[in-house]
Amino acid sequence: MLANPQEFYINGLNYTIRSAIDKDAKQLSEVRLQIDGETENMDRERGEAFIDPAGFEQIIKTDTEKPRNLFLVAAVQDRIVGFSRCEGVYLKRFSHKVEFGVCVLKEFWGYGIGKNLLKESIAWADANGIKKMTLNVLETNDKAVELYKKLGFEVEGLLKNDKILSDGNYYNTIVMGRCNE
Ligand SMILES: CC(C)(COP(=O)(O)OP(=O)(O)OC[C@H]1O[C@@H](n2cnc3c(N)ncnc32)[C@H](O)[C@@H]1OP(=O)(O)O)[C@@H](O)C(=O)NCCC(=O)NCCS
């Protein structure tokens, strides 16, 4: 689906949050690659499961057409600096919920971009009768966990030793959910 664009001015930075469009595909491919290399908080190391511009064009098309998908980008003028996706599972037994994911370029952390991408996604979900949002987050990603809790997500479970990071240690993943009663 598509969401209406919103303008923000936070800590001296102007940015827009809007639905992804076809011509964002090239930048999205590059930004995803960069963000994957900036922390170990995402599932992939830099370059793994690479999505090229044509792949993003397809995702944008699907997310625009499907009723329980939403692809938002945060743009500073014409530069994409972060994005989020809500993805529905198109089985009747999962027809009430979507999975959420978000990432922001490190250079643009602390401007409320992650928070506003999530807020806009929650507003969209609530307005469209979506009863549940779910997500997975690395247990050590304190900032993301705090953000999710602040916006109404609860911890639902723990996946023990879910990931192995570059230090050779195993890390737990927290499963979180936000129910719209
Ligand atoms: C997690 C992420 C999306 C947050 O986005 P952001 O734009 O940097 O965060 P925001 O500026 O919107 O801040 C959101 C909240 O994070 C929390 N936060 C920010 N800095 C923090 C810090 N140093 N310690 C703890 N919490 C912090 C606060 O709750 C803040 O809300 P507030 O502004 O009301 O105080 C971003 O850091 C990111 O993309 N990280 C790498 C990828 C990632 O971890 N994605 C999530 C995977 S589940």
Topology:
Elements: E1 6-10, E2 13-19, H1 25-38, H2 53-65, E3 70-76, E4 79-88, E5 97-104, H3 113-127, E6 132-138, H4 142-150, E7 154-164, E8 170-179
Parallel strand pairs: 5-6
Antiparallel strand pairs: 1-2, 2-3, 3-4, 4-5, 6-8, 7-8
Helix pairs in contact: 1-2
Coenzyme A is lined by residues 39, 41-42, 102-104, 109-115, 137, 141-144, 146-147, 150.
Keywords: Transferase
Protein name: GNAT family acetyltransferase
GO molecular function: acyltransferase activity, transferring groups other than amino-acyl groups
As laid out across the biggest beta sheet, the strand order is 1-2-3-4-5-6-8-7
Specify the biggest β-sheet.
Answer: 8 strands, mixed
As a percent range, the share of strand residues is 35-45%
Instruction: Return the structural class.
Output: alpha+beta
What is the succession of H and E elements? EEHHEEEHEHEE
- CATH architecture designation of the domain at 6-130: 3-Layer(aba) Sandwich
| Rg, Å, rounded | 16 Å
Q: List the quaternary state of the chains.
A: single chain
Output the CATH homologous superfamily of the domain at 6-130. Answer: Gcn5-related N-acetyltransferase (GNAT)
What ligand molecules are bound, each kind once?
coenzyme A
Helical content band: 25-40%
Question: Would you kindly provide a written description of the structure presented here, covering whatever features stand out?
Answer:
An 8-stranded mixed sheet has the order 1-2-3-4-5-6-8-7, sandwiched between helices. The chain has 4 helices and 8 strands. It has a domain at 6-130: 3-Layer(aba) Sandwich (Aminopeptidase). It is α+β, with helices and mostly antiparallel strands and 181 residues long. Helices cover 28% and strands 36% of the residues. Bound molecules: coenzyme A. Coenzyme A binds next to β5, α3 and α4. Residues 39, 41-42, 102-104, 109-115, 137, 141-144, 146-147, 150 line the site of coenzyme A.
